[in-house]
Amino acid sequence: MSTHFAVEPALEMLLIAIAQQRDQAAFRQLFNAVGGRLKGYAVKSGANDKDADELVQETMLLVWRKAHLYDPTQASALTWLFTLLRNKRVDLLRRNKHNLISADDLYLEPESAQSEHDAEPLQQEIESDRNQHIVRNLLQHLPTEQRIILYKVYFEGKSHSEISDELALPLGTVKSRLRLALSKFEVLARQHFLWLLIIQMTNY
Amino acid sequence: MASYHPNDELLMRFSAGMLSNALGVLVACHVERCPHCQEKTRIYEQFGGELIAESDDAELPADLLDKTLARLSDEAEPAPVKVSGNVPRPLQRFLPDDVSQIPWKGMSKAIKEFRLPFGDDEFDARLYKIAAGKQLPEHTHRGREFTLVLSGSFSDNAGAYHAGDFVLADTSVMHRPRAHAEQDCICFAVLDAPLKFTGWFGALVNPFMR
Asked: Which residues form the ChrR-like cupin domain (chain B) (predicted)?
């Protein structure tokens, strides 16, 4: 089994450079590293080409403005980028409607600023890397029938009953497949190292 | 800490940014005060991170990076302000700071409502205030009704619900909620159809029928 848990550490370093040195070179690197995939995600979740480009640009501008709020002990760079893209998408979708809700109201920033984590930053950073690594492993090992349901939730926003209609599956089957997928992740919520190791080992 | 939570389906759609306005605000109000659901949300956001990791590397316009660089400004976003008061942050811009100033609309002595203008085609959103100790007529629901208890507490035949609890009722639920005696119970409800009372009394006074 692998003992090295690091997941794309370079992205985290780029974010920190952007936050601390306002480093435009790091920003370019990050843009080139993730811009295309952010667009890929946006397109899969229904954006047309033009909107997807705008979403990438707005998300990257948000990266520049919020980099100092990124806390590597709380989330991997990709997870943090996901939350920015999600929030921008919510705001852009609602822009044309008569409503006042903004994603900032819906999704809380984690309260911990980096400075509050001085105690054992390295330890926590390793754990957040490890979590992301295990999430990746679990996702990669999900049976296709369970993955499809996850995709329908993330990219199409489908509810269980809509998915059951679309795939012509009984509602109970959709629910139990998602539950099977989720039960593996539930363990993560306990944040227990031993459990994490067990999952890790059973996946190799 | 809350005893009743949104189900995994709702939390996942919330984390994916895929809930409609009204349901999104409702789930956000619960998550804001529920460490248990915050933890789950964090895991679902990690899914999102992984889905980006495995996304296709789509082609961007050649000048997008330069256009973006040209728009970088010096100012950094201020850290978020901590939530204060007893109105959940997602609702704050829709309500007066002082909850006692909410302009309730009378429906009956037992229950008053305040409609929330979220611009949602799918759902109606409103606050209900059930007077302390009052019981509502027996009713069922034409569709789903998601309820978050904001303050006070109420009971029905299935259980007792306190501030922070998230309850889902649908057409299979027939109940007579009663607010507990100590204080008025304020609930945030999101419905996909108006309530329908079943008793003969309800048929006469049903304030929800429109």
From this structure: 99-190
